[in-house]
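Re-running the complex after MR caught last week's input typo. The corrected sequence lines follow. Everything else is unchanged.
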Amino acid sequence: MNSKQKLTLTIGIILIIAVLGYWYSQGAELFTKTQVLVDKTTELDRMLGVENKQYVDKFVFGLDYAGAISLAIAFISGIFIYLFKNKRKETL
Amino acid sequence: MKKILSSIYVLLILLTSFSFAQGFKVKASGEQTFNFADKGGRNQASFFSTTPLEDIRGLSNDVKGTATFNVNDIKTLKGKISVSVASIKTGIDLRDEHLRSENWLDAEKYPEITFTIKRVTDVKQLADNKLELKVVGDFTLKGVTKEITANATLTYLDESEQTKMRAPGDLLGVQATFKVKLSEFGVKNKIVGQKVAEEVEVSVNMVGSNKTN
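Corrected-run output:
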């Protein structure tokens, strides 16, 4: 493996770790969500014996997106590693 | 002697009926009608279901209806609550679309889920303004009607400066839960490829006022 291939591999691994790290920091959800439940129960609600939860707009990055992006990064890195290998052979 | 016995009998019947009449011990009395129209969208009906991959919580803030009862006798409770199918959200747009589709709840053909109260049983007085009871009624989902029993807690608040912030008049808080078997209502238990549990837990949280704006 030449230096360009090593660099491509390192960048690919770093990007995949970054994507998975971001997914984990977002709550490690399985599916990407466009809304999340928020508790909006007030003191009056509690006096009335009811709870109040509402869906609010928020994008939560799920494993479906994280996995697809990671696979895309791995695929693109693989192509570059292959191309750099061919170029090295041509120069030899 | 016969007159005395019949008088005692009538008295006993009256005493029995009074002692069994369970209701709220609040300022109001007589028949009251509570309207659950909620402009702020705070009234809600939700369902909770599980799939092998994740739990699903669906929520609708478009809940409306009325409940009428004698404040001193909750067994007189009658009313109807309806939920708009199109307003149900689950947190994932694609899943919401699937939920409203023909395969699931078919919002176009059956735009509302309704519950019509028939009778009340097992009343327990938790406080002067709080009752725990079972509400038996007709639940209609996707055009199919079945009798179900909901466990409910009703809380009555007399009008005050605090309650006026929510709505004018006395307020009635309703918290109810019941379970629904999807197959009984012709709903396929698969959503976006995931197999959903056959039994879904439904929960209702709403507040009504006896004074309409």
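None of the earlier attempt is carried over here. The CA atoms of residues 6 and 12 of chain B lie 10 Å apart. Residues 23-209 of chain B form a domain with the Lipocalin fold (CATH 2.40.128.110).
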